[in-house]
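Sample A.
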Amino acid sequence: MKKPLLIGISLMAAVTLTWLGACNSSHNNKTTESATGNGPYSRITLPQDAMATCTISKDSFNTWFQSGQASENGAVTPANSVTFPHQDNCDFYQWSERMFLWLTSSSAQYGGSVMASPVFFDVVSDSAGNLQMQRHIAGIIPTANSSLDKNGPNRLPVFRDKQGRLFEVMVHKAGEKVVFKNKAGKLIELGKVEKTANAQVLLMDKAGNKIEQAQIVTKLHNPDRVLHAFQTPTGTVVLDMGNKEVKLEAEVTQATLNALIAQNNSLVYYITMVNDMYAYYLTAVKDPNFKNDSISSLQFPTTAAARTCIVNYAKAHGYPVPTDSNALTMELKTSWVIADSLANPQDYFLMDAMIPTYTASSDTLWKPSGQKKAKLALVGIHIVGSAAGHPEMIWATFEHHSNTPNAAYQYLDTKGQVKTVAADKGRWLFNSNAADTPYNVNYINYDPTTQNLVAANSKIGIAPSNTQRLFPFGAAMDSIPNQQDTSASASNTEIIAINNAVMGLIPGADIRKNYVFIGAVWTSGGSIPNGNVYNPRDSISGLAIGTSLLANSTMETYFQSTSFTCFTCHHGASLAPSDLSHVFSKINPLKAMLDKIDKDQKK
């Protein structure tokens, strides 16, 4: 019998609340030295001559800290989302930086790290597949949920076609009622789909007649971005709205999730969290007996009145009163690797977790064989939060500086001249050699039915792939990413400048200096996202602005595209939380958990 492998992707990983930050930062080294063969890893080096277009003064930065003075690994307070100014891009970037420093702070007030404290809940699945919120409490090992599901705004799986475009795919089962409209506008129920010898796709009605100029009838959001998969005697056919066949990079006959493996042979683990304000808000709006005009299920809270309403609801129902209620509602998605496989785990935020072990049945198939406690290292984090004027939420992301090489990009120097930074070279945690191609090719799928890991390419097997950050700070070369910046170089400069400012103001070898702010997105005036990225030729309402092509290389590895942004998947017909968040509608309110506990105690 083959030896179990102590690496894997955790769909049900138990996480202990041990937060083990280290103080020995290697931020000033261009590589992280290794004595074990798991390095040295390169790191992102930010241009130091970038124009200071987004910065923060020393005096203002000091006010971020609980003590009123910036200190090495010092405790930071959250950004005040209730009074968020939202005047220009830099306000959003400062909000993002402060929230990251707060979340990764440790202090006696929280009994350790903020993110591992009772302020936050893990979003976990129960035995029936329902989502629950499990508060971080010392002594209780919560269950974490991995969520690299490729779901779009219609909650359908997302696939990439051969041209790199992203689509949701609706898989129609045999016998399912599907209605088309013919060229005369008549509604006709689909009988069957056939593919002729010359590869022509025929849509037939119940009588076996061809439906001329057929157009599928659907109520799906953004139907032009939805493909429809049908079974034929010769295999699966995928059609767009014009009934043109589309070739995808992956098969759609079996629902699978991507898995990402690092060059240190650790798979990446994903844990979703929400803060107490999110938990209480969700519970309140799902409580049929609660009515208050200050909050609504139609949008996340953004005002002082909404904050007060949520706090009062918590008090009235016996929940711990939020100490950081001005942070409003927050949702986090975090990514981790096994720390023991790193040469320099002291340069990462660490926590203990129960991860599954796998037995390699072959080079192309790993089967789950149990669980084992391991120490994990943080490699990426999405920070999503509501703020004044922005119920669509601010979507920010950070990564460890040794994760992934950047593609070439441009910025403005202190004289306003455009400078080009060549694509990174070297060896990275998610890239064995940045000079090698192709990049961002998925080699591993996770089957949620069997919990098996399956090779996406049988010739290569289960192995690490080389990742590249295609749009280093969320802007494509020669594009205009938002309404404020006139070029990608100007947008990149803002992100570089705020990184330089914050890192320069944090004293000493603070571990937080090892993480880079990649960017943030939002919509103009908090308008309903429509899933599209900013284009100066279009109406700005609903478009993603800021670093509009934002992606985290550990979470959107295979979905980096010039048409893809956070809101491509996280949008719907309204600002309702159920349209923006993939977990909100599935999570049971806290009351349901308390009722279950009471019921169990009475047995």
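Sample B, a different protein:
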Amino acid sequence: MNPEEIARVDIDELLKSAGFIIQDMSKFDRTASLGVAVREFVMQDGSKADYLIFIDGKACGVIEAKKAGLSLSGVENQSSQYANNLPSNVRYHRLPLPFIYESNSKEIYFSYLRDDNPRSRKVFSFHKPEFLLKLLNETSTLRNNFKNLPKLLKTNLRDCQFNAIESLEKSLQNLKPRSLIQMATGAGKTYTACNFIYRLIKFANAKRVLFLVDRNNLGRQTKKEFENFHLIDENRKFSEVYIVQHLSSNNIDKDAKVVITTIQRLYSMLQGEENYNDLDEEISAFETKPVKSKEVAYNPKLPIETFDFIVVDECHRSIYGEWRQVLEYFDAFLIGLTATPSKQTLGYFNKNLVSSYPLERSIADGINVDCDIFRIRTKIGESGSVIEAGETPIMDKRTREEKYESLDEDMEYSSKELDYSVLAPNQIITVLKCYKNAIFTQLFPEREPNFVPKTLIFAKDDNHAENITRYAREVFNEGNEFCKKITYNIGNQDPESLIKAFKVDPKLRIAVTVDMIATGTDIKALEVIIFMRDVKSSIYYEQMKGRGVRTINANDLQTITPNAISKDKFYIIDAVGVTESKKSLSAPLERKKSLSLKKLLENVAKGDISDDTLSTLAGRIVRIEANTDEKDINQIKTLTGDKTLSDIANEILDTLDPDNTKDKSEDEINDLKDTALRPFNSPALRALLIELSSKSKIYI
């Protein structure tokens, strides 16, 4: 056989897998099956189409076959000619024949000529006959429907959510196959997704959306969000109108409109496995070692047309690497949601970042709070130490059984071995004591010392978490209810109920985890995050840090932490140097922490427009606004020309945003800064800000 004939053998198999019967002209029977592909079909002008596709007895498409390795874009004219050249005596669904495929057996490209602007796209395999029949019976196409989406109404949407949805829909109207939305933690990514998914289902007639999460507990949260999502135009909940399925087995409900799962389970389904271990879905990809690229083969039980859209929510970059073929198996638009896009993520989405709302903006808008960093250094934590020769306790990390063994000579260990191969209880105790002593003297000096702020500690592994939990109870002289370990290894206890208790229970003040609360879990009352482990991934670090950024109403906070006044920032307690590497993507707004507000305002009034000064000022005034009442806000507006402090903070950040200033000269940028800072020329405003900051006890 020549190369093209070899390719056709493979194409035959791909068609059979999708449910087609393959025929030669000598055995032509267009009614032999729902889907029939006839080889070498003679067209009106005497030319031969490599394959003519019949669905339900009528012609509807062609396949142009070429040898392996041949690029296919140059073949499009040939296949289009066949689509317009059907013999007059052949029954058809519509002309020109709407389904056009080109294949060299290794690649398949598909065009749908009913689209207003047909654009060929790469597909993993051929579509099933049943799906093509549905397309033929539809009055319009998915891509055409994008142009008829009704105008988006602001209603309950934040500006960042409105802009993200509007920009995404423009991207889809331009037929961009991949779109990425960046939205800061806490800004409402899932709520945004509920809105655009609803619009795509109702107005674009999307048949099913896949929502991929990093791990299973985030899937449960996502399902709750959909169940509680109120459809304003129908005055019903989303789940009352559409079926939302969070997969707990490897079977998709045929009527489900939204399917929520992890990439691991999805791969298991493509492999044809009947069951999948739920525990594997509880482990974040951020905590697993890189795996070999997952290769997939066509599975007729999960055809390529199963989903119209795949939404990837804050998943590890490996989903675009090792798991890439799983994503690209489906003939679907890809929509990424992330707070912290990496270069790999941006590259995978063809740099089509349709909307960007970084953490700094969310802080300026009062959606999130900024952080301060408190560094704790210990000699062992920085440099390691020596275990002296003689009897020393040895613990089995798997069973936690402890026994004594004799060391013949001194054993040196480095800080990297600490809490992995070497346990130094005094080092853990020293860090916890330092934190305890600083809480009401340096961190929250305005509070009565009766309630420790809600504190989340990140440990290196489960054994480390176990030790921290026990020593924390000892250091703070408290019982079991005060501090709990929340990992996957907690016996018969339900981790979800512990997380819920940590969110609202005034008795549970400290939670120790490894990665279970690292991403996607909102704990609004959380005011302190302690890193007792380093984190190599900058993206993962940002997500862990993001657990503390959420705002909370002062009354709600006082219900959980009675001695609190309000939450206008949170603390990162760094016991390992995690904040000192270059991994951080978003630095705190306040860069001049030692500078008093009075001095800061004086410097601005005198003309200081340095980036650090402006960033610090933006961070300070947002914190002041978080502690103001309506009377204070009206006073501020009177002095600023009806602007809030959040408005001014955003104007300041505009001058620091490289995207806004990339085409401007230094003088033009300085003019923008002067304009943004003009309200602070008013002595009355400066005096009011100092008074408000003193009243709220923000600055000592």
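Observation for Sample B: The longest helix spans residues 425-443.
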